[in-house]
Amino acid sequence: MSARNSAALARARRVQAPVFAALGDATRLSLVAKLCERSPQSISELTAGSKLSRQAISKHLQVLQEAGFVAGAHVGRECRYAFDPRPMDDIRSYLDQMSRRWDEALGRLKSFVERSTQ
Amino acid sequence: MNDRIEKHIELNAPVSRVWRALTDYRDFGEWFRVKLEAPFAPGQISRGQMTYPGYEHVTWQATVQKIEPERLFSFTWLPYAIDPKVDYSSEEPTLVEFTLKPIPTGTLLTLVESGFDKVPAHRRAEAFRMNERGWTTQMQNIERHVGEK
Prior knowledge:
The complex is a heterodimer. By secondary structure, chain A is mainly alpha-helical. Chain A has six helices and three strands, in the order H-H-H-E-H-H-E-E-H. Chain A has helices at 3-14, 19-23, 26-37, 43-47, 54-66, 86-117, and strands spanning 41-42, 70-75, 78-83. In chain A, strands 1-3-2 form a three-stranded antiparallel beta sheet. In chain A, a hairpin with a 2-residue loop joins strand 2 (70-75) and strand 3 (78-83). Chain B has helices at 15-23, 25-32, 121-148, and strands at 4-11, 34-36, 45-50, 59-68, 72-77, 94-103, 106-114. Chain B is globular, with a radius of gyration of 16 Å. In chain B, helix 1 crosses helix 2 (25-32). Chain B is built from three helices and seven strands, in the order βααββββββα. The interface between A and B is large, with 43 and 42 residues.
């Protein structure tokens, strides 16, 4: 296994919250979009222009943080948040692997039914 | 985000034959590589021992959902819930659905596996690792098979 894969797995294992669920929310998606444009940003910056309170934004950031999409770092008294795309790669790899599994199984099914039909 | 797998495959065999391959537990075991203990029945748990090379120690388990003759066969399972030390009972399973449709050349089979959004991330990582090992084994099988010809 490559070092990159080992690192991805170690990271994914630390993440307990469902990654999909983290992105299944319009506010959180918009936070990810904002952080994709510019990282890191403080809660004040992320709250500016939003109808939501600082507390609400903070809660959403926490969900994203638990899923590994966002990393927070303290700069003085303020916490600044940055986007981390790696959980996305992990999901894609996972679905790719599962998908290939089915290709193999369905390939075996095809030979099985076509062989016994002839 | 995409949380499902969908496959379409054309099989040069009549729907009745494909249906049997999917829902007769012995036939299913032949191509899926699992030795099942009993016939499939809706609402029942189906169990067996994997026969896939490298996975013989693994117990296969699924809960049969629907058996609609020659049309739909579905079950739920936990993909790669294979560590005997781990209790997976609280986890959300994924749904696997096989749908059959007659076509002039035989059968169009559609497979959909959905519900991956509920699989915890640490388990996805585990399945990923298992799969990598599976692939190595698979490649060795092909090599051996080709080498014998």
